[in-house]
Amino acid sequence: MSSTPGRRVFGVLRIVACAVLVAALTTQIVDLLVHHALVPHEYFAYFTIESSFFNIVVLFIGGVLCLRHRIDPTGFTMVRIAIVSYAIVTGAVYNLLLRGGPPGDYVGPQWPNEVMHVWIPLFILLDWLLAPGRPAIRWSTLWLVVSYPVVWAAATLVRGAITGWYPYPFLEPNGAGYLGVFEYIAGLSLFIVSLGVAGIALSRRRTR
């Protein structure tokens, strides 16, 4: 079934957003390399960076689907609600907990950070709310929404216990202790689940 004019508009917007995010990541990585400030096993361990790569893939595939088809596949939409949840969490954590914090050893261009933590999460949220052609997804999709953050948090704590490095200050047990860390993780997990529930409910309601 061919696409519609509204779908084609969002298809172009998704591909443009994908290109902007690629430019932001590329700029940041190249800048860090030029200034000998890139530590790959740390840089690519950030939730923001990993989820940004997910966003690139989903935005590009979503753009192509919008340009070619009237309705997105259900499997793609299941992945998409997970990406929406991660994008909102990324934006919320950065702007509420990390913005204005002490800078690291090297401070590069700031526009890539704004793209990854503000503008792309905002676009992904609006895209979920407004783009036509989204099918209903099952409540069992929640397991997909929470699986990656749980694995990421567990791997981050294990690596941190071995190396002493944590990507975010609220994950460092030397501050609030492991109890405080687990409280942060529990709160963020609940937030992610809530976002998944809201997104799935919206897909089902609008489909009906």
Explained architecture:
The protein has 208 residues and is an all-alpha fold. It has one domain (5-207). The protein is 76% helix and 0% strand. The protein is built from seven helices and no strands. It has helices at residues 5-34, 40-43, 47-68, 74-98, 111-130, 142-163, 173-207. It is globular. The two termini are 20 Å apart.
Over all CA atoms, what is the radius of gyration?
Answer: 18 Å
The amount of helix comes to: over 70%
- Strand fraction equals under 5%
Main beta sheet strand tally, sense and closure: none
Number of domains: 1
| Derived structural class | mainly alpha
Describe how the helices and strands are arranged.
Blueprint: H1 5-34, H2 40-43, H3 47-68, H4 74-98, H5 111-130, H6 142-163, H7 173-207
Task: Fill in the keyword field for this structure.
208 residues; mainly alpha; 7 helices; globular
Short synopsis of the structure:
By secondary structure, the protein is mostly helical. The chain contains seven helices and no strands.
